[in-house]
Every structure is written in C-alpha cells, then in structure tokens.
Amino acid sequence: MSECRSCLPGELHYRVTAGTGANENVMQEILPFMRAAGVIAKEEEGMVTVRESGMADFIDFCRDHMDTSRMTFQLDGEGEQRPFEALAPLLDARWIDSIVFEGRVVPYCQPILDREGKLFAHEILSRFAREDGTLAPPGEVFRAAKARGRLFALDRVCRMSAVKCAELPGKVFINFIPTSIYAPEHCLRSTVALAGELGIDPSRFVFEVVETEYVEDLNHLKRILDYYRQRGFQYALDDVGEGFSTVEMLRELRPHYMKLDMGYVRGVADDPQKQEVALKMLAAARETGAVPLAEGVEAPEDYDWLRQAGFELFQGYLFGKPAPVAKEQG
After folding, report:
1. Handedness of CA 62, 66, 67, 70 (dihedral sign)
2. Residue 222: other Cβ atoms inside 10 A
3. Could you say which of 51, 145, 167, 260 would form a disulfide bridge with 150 (CB–CB 3.0 to 4.6 Å)?
4. Contact, 100 vs 154, CB < 8 A?
5. Residue 315, SS3?
6. Interval 99-111 mean pLDDT
C-alpha cells in the first residue's frame, strides 16, 4: 500500500526569507557554496529553501553575518511564517523523527469496567521509547511532533500500534487526533486495512476523539466519524464537560460513547456543581444514544455516586493503572 508524504515524511525543508536587501545580498554570495554542498532544495527571489542537513551551518553563518531579527522561515508546504530564531528549537527536536520513522511506540492499556465490575474494554495509551530505552513524556513527544510537522505521521503510528493490540479481551479504545487527518478516505485506509488483515471485527474498535476543542471544521470531523461508522467501527467523544463538548456537540456528532471529563469525576460525590454537570451530560448521552463512561475514577465514593446516577462504564486508577501491553498480545 502506497503512503503519502505526510504518512512517511522525509527530510524537512526550510524556506528562509532574507527580510532585507542587505541580507539578500549576503545570501546571494553564499548560494554557490550551498549549491555545491547540495543543501539547497529551491531558490526564489529573496528566499531560499534549505534541506535540514544543511541548516545547522546555515543558522550559524546567518547569526554571524546577517540581521536575523528581520528573517523568517516556514516549513516547506506550510503557510505559517516563523521568526528565524525559532529554527534552533526545531533542529533540537529532531529526536522525534526517529521515534516516528522507527515506530518506537510502546502501547500501554488501562481497563474499562461495566456496572457489574466486569471487564468491558481496554483503552490503548501510547508511550514512546527514546534510543536509550527510557520513555519520553507523551506531551513532550506530541509537542515536538507538532512543531516539526510530524503530527500526522505520529498519530498514524500510534493508531497502527493500537490496532495490533486487539488480542486484548473486550473492546479496544484507540485515541486519534482529528486535526491530524486531512482526508479520511486516504489517511485512515491503512488503519482500516490493518484491522482487515488481522481478521478483527471492526465493531471491537472504538476510536476516541481527542482535542475536539481544536477542531474548527466540524463538518470535517463528521466526515472522519462517518468514515469509521460506515466501515463498522465505533467512536467515542473524550473529555466531555461544560466546555467545548457541550450538549450541542453530542447532538451533532452522536458518538457511540461519551466520556465524562475526569475534572467532573474526581470529587463528584461531594461537589454539587460537579454533580450538576455530570447529570446534565448523562442526560445528553441518553438523549443521543451514547453509552455514558466516567473516566479518572479514583475514589470509591465517586464511583458509588456515578454508578447510582446511571453511568454505565468506568475507567480510572480505582480499577487499574495503565500498564504495558504484554508482548504476546501486541
């Protein structure tokens, strides 16, 4: 199966704008040397696109001989202009590329229980191995991937790794970032194909929408969810609460599962305001046909309150912390 450049991106290119006539004159003087070194991908008036392999030396030269405060750059293919001084952190974050390209994703799982305390599903949580074998914090990994334009590729690697965990008992909840998916019919077909190759019933997978608050194009998200639904997969809306995931959002997306934000779960037994939000979202879930799930359950009294209120599924440290998926299961 062929993959697009976003799925398996290669070396980054940096489109650097001189910003001033003096800077442009200096840039013109060094172009012959850069051509000979093979680090130029493209030349335009007042700007040059440099391959990442040549960026470290280019940055040092510019700092010594040019007014970098007037210079800007953008990653090739992106529209955002960034200050020149933001280049160095991008180079420092190159470690994320090996995690993506080598697929150094370590799947963890956390159980999800039903009202009777029986195992219903596992959520697959991605952790990431550095070259020395230690785990990098997920937040740090995703920030680096976003900065370097690797978010799509990282999200795909995580999804593919999670699908391979389907030998775990029960359903498998898999996180995905909708803003990293350009066109579901192209970007998600490898995930769907892998499930087919493994001979797994699509209904066992629940794709969990994260970072919904950053989705500006709701119709695009609907296309993604429709793509999954039409192929027999299910989906969940994560972190539902008073903020971005309002009752209207539930009505618009009509997820199979609604996960109440842990901020409204922890301490709910003793907090009337949290109880009000929990009951409101519970009613919205029932109205839209979504199964209500409370995540982040840590205290028995919160579990008892949520269970009596009518929540049907539960996840949290009270039932089990995330743990590595056994190799024979991955």
Report:
1. negative
2. 16
3. 145
4. yes
5. strand
6. 94
